[in-house]
Amino acid sequence: MSKMANDYNAINLSQGFPNFETDQKLKDLVTKAMNEGYNQYPPDSGIKVLREEISKKIKSLYGKEYNPDSEITITSGATEALYCAITAFVNKGDEVIVLKPAYDTYEPTIKINGGKPVQIQLKGENYKLDWDEVRSTVNSKTRMIIINTPHNPTGTILSQEDMLELQKILSETNIILLSDEVYEHLIFDKEQHQSVSKFPGLSERSIVCASFGKTFHNTGWKTGYCVAPEKLMKEIRKIHELTVFSVNHPMQRAYVDYLKDPSTYLDLSNFYQTKRDLFLNLIKDSKFSYTPSKGTYYQLLNFSGITDENDVNFAERLVKQHGLASIPVSKFNINEKDNSQLRFCFAKTDDTLEKAAEILCKL
Ligand code: PMP
Ligand code: GLN
């Protein structure tokens, strides 16, 4: 969709990236690191001082202490962390439960490793998970469950009750939990992010993936990390070494200093909530219907009040005829059934959101 947006010179609210700059202070720290000579391979698991900073951050936010030496690895974005986690543990014939709609790398990675994705649909307007369905889907072949909160593309979040249900279901099993928490700092309306790291019965069997790109407005730097108990991390690191070996050195160095100021990530929810509210306020008189996003920088809009076209056709027409790009939600879903919604990324300047809303209000 980004290519189509460029080809048609359209406003691009499709792919999830900000159209504003990362903090100059952070860029200066990268330049400083380069000038100080941090330009050769860092250790494969990432530089120790950064792993230590991440450990402190997680301890202060979620109360769980991960050992920087053996339980934290810096990765080339969350994408690589997800790839390594699935590849390390999923083998031929293993089942992996995926909650649909789902981010698009999970299922292909499961299949590359010979595993079988088993899909459970999130239901209703609020995309709720039916825990009885999870309970009845789990069986002796289930190797892993993948969760994602806040959730791309729906903007829903898992609650504390959800996490406790999951903890109960997994307690008698050897199932590994893969928790994609790349939007942990984008959560709205005073809700709290429920990291699996907060729940001892979950964290002991979990791999948590995070992304600096989402948090610090620099998705192109492709820097993230994963945390997991030592026995799991040992296996993930074997795959990580073979995949990228190590991750760019100067950026790692820069984050060591940058993470020391928690306001760099704690202010993010307010920042994005203001953008969500602006966008929704601008389109409140349009023919779209919606439930406000509770987290991430995405907003789903239902267009059944405008046309009965499917979402792929409507998204294409929106770019070509009206100059606005979005993502058709069926691309994240099962059997393309949920096909009257589009995903809009509101990580954009106010000016861009205003121009996009003007188009949406005319439909
Ligand atoms: N998981 C989800 C749910 C995402 O939306 C993204 C977005 N890119 C990723 C993982 C990958 O993150 P990264 O850009 O750090 O590889
Ligand atoms: N996570 C972003 C999205 O969902 C983009 C990642 C990508 O394009 N691969 O739009």
TrEMBL record:
<feature type="domain" description="Aminotransferase class I/classII large">
    <location>
        <begin position="10"/>
        <end position="359"/>
    </location>
</feature>
<protein>
    <submittedName>
        <fullName>Methionine aminotransferase</fullName>
    </submittedName>
</protein>
<dbReference type="InterPro" id="IPR015422">
    <property type="entry name" value="PyrdxlP-dep_Trfase_small"/>
</dbReference>
<keyword id="KW-0808">Transferase</keyword>
<dbReference type="GO" id="GO:0008483">
    <property type="term" value="F:transaminase activity"/>
</dbReference>
<dbReference type="InterPro" id="IPR015421">
    <property type="entry name" value="PyrdxlP-dep_Trfase_major"/>
</dbReference>
<keyword id="KW-0032">Aminotransferase</keyword>
<dbReference type="InterPro" id="IPR004839">
    <property type="entry name" value="Aminotransferase_I/II_large"/>
</dbReference>
<dbReference type="Pfam" id="PF00155">
    <property type="entry name" value="Aminotran_1_2"/>
</dbReference>
<dbReference type="InterPro" id="IPR015424">
    <property type="entry name" value="PyrdxlP-dep_Trfase"/>
</dbReference>
<keyword id="KW-0663">Pyridoxal phosphate</keyword>
<dbReference type="InterPro" id="IPR051326">
    <property type="entry name" value="Kynurenine-oxoglutarate_AT"/>
</dbReference>
